[in-house]
Write a structure and sequence with these properties.
Helix content: 40-55%
Order of helices and strands: HHHHEHEEHEHEEEHEEHHHEHEHH
Strand content: 5-15%
Low-confidence stretches: 1-31
Number of strands: 11
Number of helices: 14
Strand order of the largest sheet: 3-2-1-4-5
Shape: globular
Length: about 500
């Protein structure tokens, strides 16, 4: 039996080497050498940004002459504090590098701590000249470092899309749960996991080829031996009646010093992010799930961000919106804006504003097209809707028809980020769990927008919306807004 192939022979990225594999089933996979190299690149990037920003802005802030030595000292002190704060805040921990919002959160938290430390040092010593470094240099460093991290992440994700820089994973559990894990890792290559082998309770899969094309190399009671011989980087434990606390504990002991990280999938509920905490209770590890927060200071901050962001985006988009209005008026008869009743937070209805993309009285033609509906669940969607105008097709492709919704955000009926705003007739068909989408304001964009939009199945769209409601955070909002620009420019899943 040959070992799983972890890479493809293509041109390698100039920054990261590809992860390759040799040998058969029991040959040891090579250590993923790209991991320490990528970590060193991130550290070098952060330190370089800190030094360059300190030199450039410090030079502009410098008054020269006798104060030059003081400026050089402050610059060196600022860079040193920033580097130490990032190291203390574990901003370079391998687990958070390359995916998820936690990487950016730790970077921001570390540089915020650096600014506070520098400010306290200035107060303690009476050095007033630290103020520009606290309020200009450190924030500028944070912005540039975030952008540099993003660029490095894009290089890593590009390599992963072509089968490189992946972590070899041994999946162990029931064939159904293992298959779900395999499909998720394939659909989300940016995570960097590639299931290379599988162990099941009886050592067999659900087909001759194994499970979803991945070979089954042994039984669950042989898992540790296969991991040690194969050199897998991740051991992913999925649900199976075989697993119990005692067996998982013994497996963790046997995997010590193997170089493999054991990851256990919680199967009782799908909750992640800031609401999930691990703590010891009566000597037992317990997963604590805090209640979702729909009020409080974070929500106030989100409301302020919504309105400030809406004003800024409207100011930038006004010339484009004027051109769109003219194009709509020339292309077809009817009003420029389309008004429609939607359901917002707590079930309160509001009128949503969009640029008109269809012919006038398009709603009256909808019943005749019911047989051609391609939408998922309660949604009505058609890839080639005959009601869509020529200008409307372009607007829909790049989501420009949604720009007037910034006025809804400004009015407080919507948020920049949130679940999709549903129609009243859709809400009437909601099941009880789907109504949790109404606990927060609907959004101009959301997880559904950056994960495929109309290409998503109804179940996946609902799951993403519920995940946003359950695991919401300001960091998640920033990530979604950033990804929205890429999704809109690509036009994927929009029709």
């Amino acid at each position: 039996m040959t070992g799983p192939r972890l890479g493809v022979r293509r041109r390698r990225p100039t920054i990261l080497r590809s992860l390759t594999t040799t040998g058969g089933e029991h040959s040891r996979l090579p250590v993923a050498g790209w991991e320490p190299r990528y970590r060193r690149l991130v550290i070098l990037s952060d330190v370089t940004v800190a030094v360059v920003v300190a030199v450039v802005l410090g030079g502009l802030l410098s008054v020269g002459g006798a104060a030059l030595f003081k400026d050089l000292t402050l610059g060196f002190l600022t860079v040193t504090i920033e580097v130490c704060a990032l190291a203390a805040g574990r901003a370079w921990h391998p687990v958070v590098l390359g995916q998820g919002a936690e990487e950016y959160v730790r970077l921001g938290r570390g540089l915020f701590a650096a600014a506070v430390t520098l400010a306290l040092a200035g107060l303690a010593t009476g050095v007033v000249s630290t103020r520009p470094w606290v309020f200009v240099v450190v924030p500028a460093t944070a912005l540039v470092a975030l952008f540099a991290r993003y660029l490095l992440r894009q290089v890593l994700h590009r390599a992963r899309r072509i089968g490189q820089c992946l972590l070899p994973v041994m999946a162990a559990g029931h064939p159904d749960t293992v298959r779900d894990l395999i499909e998720r890792t394939r659909d989300n290559s940016h995570i960097g996991w590639q299931v290379a082998a599988v162990c099941t309770a009886d050592g067999t899969g659900d087909s001759i080829a194994g499970i979803a094309g991945v070979s089954v190399v042994g039984r669950l009671d042989e898992l540790a031996e296969h991991v040690r011989r194969g050199g897998y980087r991740i051991v992913a434990i999925t649900a199976d009646p075989y697993w119990n606390p005692r067996r998982l504990q013994r497996l963790a002991w046997r995997l010590e010093d193997s170089g493999a990280e054991m990851v256990v999938a919680p199967t009782l509920m799908e909750v992640a992010g800031p609401r999930l905490h691990v703590s010891g209770v009566l000597g037992m590890p317990m997963l604590r799930v805090s209640a979702p927060v729909f009020t409080g200071m974070r929500r106030v901050v989100k409301g302020v961000m919504d309105r400030v962001g809406a004003v800024a985006l409207l100011a930038m988009a006004l010339p484009l919106m004027a051109l769109i209005a003219v194009a709509i008026a020339i292309d077809s008869r009817g009003p420029v804006l389309y008004r429609q009743r939607r359901v917002g937070k707590a079930g309160h209805e509001f009128t949503i504003l969009k640029f008109r993309t269809m012919v006038r009285d398009a709603d009256r033609l909808k019943p005749a097209l019911a047989g051609d509906n391609e939408g998922a669940g309660v949604l009505f969607k058609m890839r080639r809707d005959p009601r869509v105008t020529r200008v409307g097709a372009v607007l829909r492709r790049y989501s420009l028809d949604e720009l007037p919704q910034l006025l809804n955000v400004l009015a407080g009926a919507m948020s920049l980020v949130g679940p999709r705003p549903p129609l009243p007739q859709e809400c009437a068909r909601y099941e009880p769990d789907m109504r949790r989408r109404l606990l927060v304001k609907p959004g101009l964009t959301g997880l559904w927008q950056v994960s495929g939009r109309s290409d998503l199945s109804w179940e996946e769209a609902v799951r993403l919306d519920l995940r946003y409601v359950e695991d919401w955070s300001l960091a998640m909002d920033v990530m979604i807004l950033w990804k929205t620009f890429r999704a809109v420019l690509g036009g994927q899943g929009a029709y």
